[in-house]
Amino acid sequence: MVSSDANYPEEVLDEHMSWMLQAMEMAEEALAASEVPVGCVFVRDGKAIAKARNRTNELRNATRHAELEAIDTILADPTLTPPGLLASGAYPLADTTLYVTVEPCIMCASALRQVGIKRVFYGCANERFGGCGSVLGVNMSLWHPKHPPFDATDGYCREEAIMILRRFYITENTNAPTPRSKTNRVLKTDIPSRESTPRHK
């Protein structure tokens, strides 16, 4: 089910944009490090408790997506996840919102359910691996009957998120086993239109 955020107060939409811009800063940091430019911010009680970016190339580990990097940081910090919380069966991120530049992939969407994330806001869809509706709706599916579903709202900084991905994909990937020449590639700036307001799934 898709519905509009058009009825949200303007100050709430501005707050979401503010956090998403911080996630975009992390994506820019990833791009500078020759990583797929995805960044995220986890927010609790109006404060950022973790920020992260993709580190898959740096660590040679395909699981080091921005969301999992941040989750690991949160779970390792006893001030954010008090001792005994996990043992009690409580969800460590039940009161936490994630802002991420690209729709979480199937792996990350599953991890987010398992830590009980409250809600996710993301920039652009992940049409190849999206776990919040583009490919599979892991966030709302019955595959995790023991873990609570979460709403996922897209569209915040959508164009910026698409453009930073395009900037990455026209560059040479020096980490590839056999790098392909991309000297003739041109950065495309036209972006397909969508609804003018963010939506949630």
From TrEMBL:
Molecular function terms from GO: tRNA-specific adenosine-34 deaminase activity; zinc ion binding
InterPro entries: APOBEC/CMP_deaminase_Zn-bd, CMP_dCMP_dom, Cytidine_deaminase-like
Record's keyword terms, sorted: Hydrolase, Metal-binding, Zinc
Composition bias type Basic and acidic residues, residue spans: 187-201
Domain CMP/dCMP-type deaminase span(s) in chain numbering: 14-134
Biased composition (Polar residues): 175-186
Entry protein name: Cytidine deaminase-like protein
Organism expressing this protein natively: Multifurca ochricompacta
